[in-house]
Structure formats: C-alpha cells, structure tokens
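TASK: fixed-backbone design
INPUT:
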C-alpha cells in the first residue's frame, strides 16, 4: 500500500468485511494522550497528516478529516483533498458531521479504547436521526490493514529521582488515598501516562518527546497500588524503586482487573479514561464515580524542588537558545541556511549542554510563509531557505531531568517591512500585558486570554490558538488542567505553583508568522491595600526578543520598562554563560531600548 489512496481503499474494504458502514479515526492512544507512540499513529498512516491533534471519519463514499485552527494550512498541504474533505473544528465536530453524513440505518464503528464515554454518548445521540448504530469494535480495522504497524515500545521504566520530583511516590499516593477516603471511594483508575509517571516517580521512553511509559494503575484507599505494565519493561531495580506497596502486573491483565472490582466504589476520569475502562468497570459490577483523575491537580501545582529544577533547566536552555540566536543572526542573512539546518543546529546547541534527554517536541522551524503554519513540521519536501527580508519563527524546547522547556522566538532576517514590525509589536504588547497581569485567586485562564489579544483585536487581527498551556516537570510539554484560552479549556482556576506558557501570535497565510512565547509561574503577589489574595506571573524563560522587529514608538513607557527589565534579566541569567562573539551579540541584543 504505497499511496494514501490505497490505504483508504484497504480500510473501506476491511469495513465491508466487518459489516461496518463507517469508522472514526482519532489521533490518540488508549491513554487519551496528545502525543502517541508510533504504533498508535493510525491517523497519520491513513491520511498523511502529521499534526498532533485531529480526527477522521471514513464512510463508503466520502471521508473527512477534522482539525482545529492550528492546522488549517498544514492539513491541506499534507492530505489529498481529492479523497478527503477538510472540516474545521470548532465550527463543526466529528459527531455533528456524522449526524449529517452517516448512511441512514448504517453501522458506524469506533474503537472503545480510543474514545471517551462522553464522546460515545454524543455520537449515539447524533446518529439517532439517521437511525444509525454506533458499534464498538473488538479489533481496530486499521490495525488489520496496516501491514508494517510498529509494535509498542519495550523500553524499560526509569526511576525519577526524588531530588527532581521533590516528593516520594509513597507521599503522592498517600495524598491520592486521602482524597479517596474523603470521597468514600475504594480506588482510583489512573490511565493518563503523565499521571502514572507522577504518582510512581517513574519515567519512560515509549512516546517520542514525552518521557512516559505505557502503563495503567489502580491506586487504593489504603495507599497501595497495582501497576499494569509489560513484564519486559520492569527489572529488579525498578521493583525496588516501586516498593512493597506497589503490586506489578502484566499490562494485558488490566481489563480483567477492572472487571474484578465488583462492589467497589471506583473513581474514573470521564475526560482521561477511555470508554472501554468504563465498560469494563460496569461489566464487573463496580460503582463508578465519574470524577477527575486525582493526580491531575497535584501534578500541575509544582513543589519548590520542581520549581528550582525548572529554573535551572531554563537557565541552561536559555543559553543554548541564545547561542543559536547568535548563530542565526550571523549565518541566515547570508542566504544559505534552511529550516532543517537551523533545527538541527539548535538541537546541537541543546545537546552540547550534556543534560538534554530529548527535545520536548519536534522543533517548529518556519521560514517566511511556513512560519504562518502554526504547528509546522519541517520535512525535506517543505524545507525552505531562511531568506533576507523575512521572519523566521522557531518554537522549540528540551526535556531535561530537572525540567521541561518550551520557547518561541520570531527573528527578523534583514530588514522587515513596516507591516511586519507593526504586527510583531502588537503581539509583543499582548505578551507584555499578560506577563504583567495581577489577578485575584480563583481567576481562570479564560478570563486572562483577552489581555494577550486586545492589541491585535484593535487592528482587526487575531490568532486561532490558545494563549497558554500548562507544562509538566520532565513530563508533557502540554499539561492540564490549566490553560489560558477562550475556547477548548481555560476554565481551571489558576493556582500558585502552576507553569503556563504565554504565547500570543499572528499568522499571515502565505507570508509570515509571529509568535513570542515564554513560560511563566503563577505566584502569590503582594498588592498594597488588597482585600483579596492576589496572584501574578513570574517569567521563567530567558532569551532575547528581537529588537529589530519592534516599532519602539508603539510601546508605552511601561512596556518599554518591562522589556528593558526583561532583557537585563536575560543578561544576568544567560549572558554570564556566554563568551566571545556570542557574549558581545547578547549584550547588544539586550541593550535598553
């Protein structure tokens, strides 16, 4: 099956054999992960789409792929429009589309290990008018027609040292147990990979760019736990690390274990646990408490050791990025540096620290019009030279044992146009406004999102992605529950100790993209005369913001003061790590406006 057209035909032929009139293909795994192992890249195999979020529906006579605003351009470049309809989320959804397009009386298949219970209910409701049936499959039909599908990783679990974690795994599981007792629950199901990594102080190598291991867990009210993982992934040292309170089982026995929880009151997260988990618990006679995974919020609120580790990682990463920015400032104007070369050079600077475990995601290295593709992934066929007179957008990060980084800089190569500088400055003003925000405890990210967009809005401009996402501690670069967004989340109250990104942007299709991203820490803020507990943001990322792209006259005095102060911090944290020409460059790049 050398072409995507052949693969689509093979799937349709398999659906006929399975007596199905359609099938839904989400980009996730049995843990509802955003980033998945190669074995779970079914959407990419079927369609060619390489983004990190999307879904598809295949019917006998038509097929559609669903993506959000981050991938509007990318999906059209990677997927053949002759065979696929492009559908934009949130303007539509898989379930709404099925309600309009499913064959009357048809049987629409889905894999219950790849969807939430809520999605199943929505899809069943949407299909009612077509008198169509939603059918749970025992074996995913794509797996039947994907001849060289990779097998799940067999890499061994790795202990995450307490000097990085800041707490013992036993202490974390006791916190979960205390919550279970308060809710009169007997156990909680942990199926999200980062929750399991956090609760057991383990890391893994099973998902590219995210140091997690394929596993499930059940944590009990007595603070003991059952960990379900492939036997070959656990050695004697790991058994010792886990301790006597953790019983280790073969991952293949997890579904049967759920069915054996008769009479137990069990917490299962309706957002993070797949429908198959709920089905198995119900089949076994358990009482399900549909509540949030009890590891999610404690994991998001970092302890002092994690915060200190993150600061160390940021200082190290900022120096690597600044060395790269110096290199790009020297080499790109010559007109012989392309996107792939730049991404590789940036990775070399990070690896030279001697501390990099992996990148935290594939570097977004976008020159000119490619920078307007929000989650662009450079490949040989899309690779462009970074040309004078253009913007170069680089969004990148590193996985270090003491922290996870994520940073975006937009660099003017040569002289930008007046319009480019204007729009860069609008994005910068929004970034500064959010960085300076002071807000009462209980404020949600959705209430702050407008601060970053206001200057773009005043010029009739906007961007089609959230302004901020949570970040893990040597874990997922995108971590919930906190977000700064007006859609797709943002309802979680921000709490001191949370990490978030601050990343407004602007994208002019076919010409250029702009994004300025730093990570921030939610921290208590003393306000004279305050009658409520107040919070603010500490900026954690340190690398120069390109002065050559700024219309200084558009900045207020307070904005200029913020930028000068920020650049003074960059010099203090990063400048001291540089020498020679790189040191001279950063001193000029961080000079007061």
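OUTPUT:
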């Amino acid at each position: 099956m050398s072409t995507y057209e052949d693969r689509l035909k093979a799937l349709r032929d398999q659906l006929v054999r399975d007596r199905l009139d359609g099938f839904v293909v989400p980009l996730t795994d049995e843990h509802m992960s955003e980033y998945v192992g190669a074995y779970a890249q079914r959407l990419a195999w079927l369609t060619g789409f390489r983004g990190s979020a999307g879904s598809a529906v295949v019917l006998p006579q038509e097929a559609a792929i669903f993506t959000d605003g981050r991938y509007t351009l990318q999906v059209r470049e990677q997927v053949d429009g002759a065979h696929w309809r492009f559908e934009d989320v949130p303007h539509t959804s898989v379930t709404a589309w099925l309600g309009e397009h499913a064959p009357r009386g048809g049987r629409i298949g889905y894999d219950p290990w790849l969807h939430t219970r809520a999605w199943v209910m929505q899809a069943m409701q949407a299909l009612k008018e077509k008198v169509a049936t939603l059918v749970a499959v025992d074996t995913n039909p794509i797996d039947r027609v994907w001849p060289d599908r990779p097998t799940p990783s067999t890499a061994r679990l790795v202990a995450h040292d307490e000097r990085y974690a800041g707490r013992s795994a036993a202490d974390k599981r006791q916190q979960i147990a205390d919550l279970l007792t308060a809710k009169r629950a007997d156990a909680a199901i942990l199926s999200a990979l980062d929750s399991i990594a956090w609760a057991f102080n383990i890391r893994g190598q099973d998902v590219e760019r995210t140091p997690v291991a394929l596993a499930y867990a059940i944590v009990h009210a007595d603070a003991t736990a059952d960990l379900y993982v492939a036997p070959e992934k656990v050695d004697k040292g790991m058994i010792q690390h886990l301790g006597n309170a953790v019983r280790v089982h073969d991952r293949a026995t997890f579904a049967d274990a759920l069915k054996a929880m008769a009479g137990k009151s069990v917490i299962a997260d309706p957002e993070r646990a797949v429908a198959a988990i709920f089905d198995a618990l119900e089949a076994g006679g358990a009482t399900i408490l549909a509540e949030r995974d009890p590891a999610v919020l404690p994991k998001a609120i970092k302890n002092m050791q994690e915060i200190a580790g993150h600061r160390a990682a940021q200082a190290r990463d900022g120096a690597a990025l600044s060395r790269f920015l110096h290199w790009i400032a020297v080499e790109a104007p010559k007109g012989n540096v392309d996107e792939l070369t730049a991404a590789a050079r940036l990775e070399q600077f990070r690896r030279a620290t001697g501390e990099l475990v992996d990148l935290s995601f594939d570097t977004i290295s976008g020159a000119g019009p490619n920078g307007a593709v929000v989650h662009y992934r450079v490949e040989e066929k899309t690779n462009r030279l970074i040309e004078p007179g253009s913007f170069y957008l680089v969004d990148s990060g590193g996985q270090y044992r003491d922290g996870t980084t994520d940073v975006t800089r937009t660099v003017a190569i040569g002289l930008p146009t007046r319009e480019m500088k204007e729009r860069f400055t609008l994005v910068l003003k929004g970034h500064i406004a959010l960085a300076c925000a002071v807000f009462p405890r209980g404020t949600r990210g959705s209430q702050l999102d407008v601060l970053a967009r206001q200057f773009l809005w005043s010029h009739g401009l906007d961007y089609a992605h959230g302004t901020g996402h949570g970040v893990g501690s040597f874990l997922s670069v995108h971590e919930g529950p906190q977000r700064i967004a007006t859609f797709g989340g943002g309802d979680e109250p921000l709490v001191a100790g949370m990490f978030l990104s601050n990343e407004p942007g602007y994208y002019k299709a076919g010409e250029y993209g702009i994004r300025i991203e730093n990570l921030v820490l939610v921290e208590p803020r003393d306000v004279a005369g305050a009658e409520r507990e107040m919070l603010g943001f500490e900026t954690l990322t340190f690398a120069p913001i390109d002065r050559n792209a700024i219309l200084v006259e558009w900045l207020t005095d307070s904005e200029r003061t913020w930028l000068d102060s920020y650049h003074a911090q960059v010099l203090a944290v990063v400048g001291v790590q540089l020498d020679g020409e790189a040191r001279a460059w950063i001193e000029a790049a961080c000079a007061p406006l």
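COMMENT: The chain is about 35% helix and 20% strand.
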